[in-house]
Input
Amino acid sequence: MSGQHGRVLTVALLTFALSAAVNSASEAVASLFHVGLSIVTLVLIIATGILFDIIGTATAAASEAPINAMAAKRVYGANEALNLVRAAPTVANFCNDVVGDICGTVSGAVGATIVLLTVGSGSSTLARAMPTVVVALVSAVTVAGKAAGKQFAIDRANTVVLAVGRVIASWNGLIRGKTQGRNKSRGKPARKRSNGDRV
Output
């Protein structure tokens, strides 16, 4: 199997696994809790799709030279931002295609669950019309949000990528701090007993 085919298969399997996990979790939340919380879950899913679309677009549109200059000046998060820009095709594919498609699919499923919670599955006119209205509303909000987000990402590409780089740098610093703390606690020598210690 060639490298290109391997990457495509990896993306497909990753998308399948993430979509199944997120869809199951979101539908469980939507069906177990109040309609209000289900709507909040739906809004968060749509916002996540828009946010990652902004990140993917900004990464593809960012200029490497200014970020490289910031990295040379040791600007916080610039090294991480530079890594994102240099891996722009992979980052854009993951953010725009994988996460974006998952959020689009899951938001539709959660919207359908909300319809069932509010009007049920009867044969009334409202019950038949609500799924269409909800799906159309979710699609309209998603498309409008991504359209506005893309323009923002193109206009402020370097700023967006640097902000993401700072988030990654903060996360890496947090993980390193916890790891070093555990290593120190494990490597701490046992206290030697003095003659006055009880046996």
The mean pLDDT is 81. The radius of gyration is 23 Å. The helical segments are 3-32, 35-61, 64-72, 78-86, 88-119, 125-155, 157-187. Residues 3-183 form one domain.
